[in-house]
Amino acid sequence: MPFSQTSRLCLFSFALVTGFALATPSPTLAAQDAPDDIVITGTRIPAKQDSIGHHVTVLDGETIELQGIDSLGDVLRQIPGLAVNRTGGFGGLTQIRLRGAEANQVLILLDGVEIAPAGQGEVDLSTLLTADIDRIEIIRGSQSGLYGSNALAGVINIISRQDSGNGFRANLEYGAFNTNYGQIAAHGGNGTSYISGIYARRETSGYDASLLGNEKDGGKTSNALLRAGHDFSENFSLDIWLRYGDKTADTDGFDFSGGPNQGLAFDDDSFTKSEDWNSAITAQFSLLQGRLNNKASYSYSQSRQEGGAGATTSFGNDNERRKLTLQSTYFWQAGANNQHALTGFYEREEERFQNLYPFDPSQIPTLSRELNGYGFEYRGNFSDRFYLNIAARKDENDAFKDAETASINAAWLFPKSQIRLHASVGKAITNPTFFEQFGFVPGTFTGNPNLKPEQAETFDIGIEKTFTKARAVADITLFKSDLRDEIRSVFPSVANDSGTSKRSGIETSLTANLSDSLRFTGAYTYLDASEADGSAEVQRPRHQANFYLFGQFANDRGHYTLGVNYQGERLDTDFRNFFTNGFTSEKTPLGAYTIARASASWQLNHQTQIFGRVENLFDTDYQETIGYNVPGQAAYIGLRFGL
Asked: Whole domain around residue 520: which residue ranges?
């Protein structure tokens, strides 16, 4: 794209909002007049949770800490409408599917920064630990009008803890499979400046992930995060964010010999490793006495994945992403009770990808692509009863077809009956990955440069009811998504499907304070996900449910949790008859299973807490992926320190 055109697009958002601001009467609404129950995902500016028409789930850090889970993937298993699947041991590829969507159709953010490697377009959850999480916000439904590609089914934003003042925290844990986990965090601040840092590491000998042998598959995972910021004045602030993550995991071979173990994992000395760097700098400044808020940010990510067997590294890639984001928001009030906000934004993204161990000369060059995205968001609050949110965006891509996306969501509040209705409709996209566009080894997997972005039309509607006397909140949401131009394997390449994949279902949730010392949460999801030919999609359980009890005793010195997760029957891709079926895989059912877990903690003194947990409490035997084992009953114990 010529620089002059890029410059005009860059100024679009500022011109739109600033011009609107100067032409509109001065508001009485202050931008910072937000209540405590706000979310920062799903809109361009923080919003009240009950003002968002999308189905929103917020999982707070205290709940995560009480459960004692150190893997983000395992935490997300309790979220309505979200299925988690791990292939292999603790370091195996761990994917999520939200409302039946593929893993690369869900955008994952860490403190608002996209962390998926540019080459894959999805996050391997086995690389993420739960160290120092303040909250996790899950926004379902089309979000491409705000975020562009990959936000087709929703957005998951993991928000790290940011304390005021000075402090120090540390965790130490040991348990099954010779697992060691530790984290250390420190923070300081004076109200004007702050700095915080966290380092966490998990190392395990693991268990035998294959069904054929007894070799343990261990691994190491490390996460580090540094945040700092300074308020130069009431109207200007600057924040810096740095993240590092690495993972090394033992994996197993996969038999494609056509012999008796065809399609099954087997023990060998295979391995994978990854390294991720992410950084961001953000400036925020306000004008017109706070009525016009501006934000400029620049982020950079670099990822490197490698793997092989024994001492030989035989595959890998290096990729990076640079993103510039500019946005302006103007707040105004029309009448006594109607409040409005208009945001214009512009994004420029550059991605680069290179195969590290090419088998063919055509794979040596570094590949790159660029996009420019711009759009707007309108938010209206009408008497604190009706909320309307509209977003629209255009992405101009240099390597494939341009795309336009949009969404509308609304929420209606009925205070007397304590009912909230919410609904959303939108169009969303997911761009092709570098692998899909350019291939890997010609003659084995050939890329398709003519691919179009996948696109979906989504809709959901729900009702939330608060029961004051029962101290409970219940929600039921119906959702539907039609996916077109899905990128499918057409060996030895890929192509856009001409049909429509349909996904629909129901999400239900209930939170209830049974007493002052006992809280219950429960969720159930029904999902019907089918391919364009009408067949069921793999790894999409039709029924999912989870139930948790959170209790406290001895004047809040002791806490415990009891949890049950149910996964219904689902299909998995099966290669065992690949050769006898004419080089075609099958879909084989995997049985339903129920897993229970328990955790407890005791406050020894003001600074020290002892805690423990048991996973797979009843040593349930089940299968998550064809050809792979799962861990049995496992116990862990640890200490937390805080100053």
From this structure: 3-642
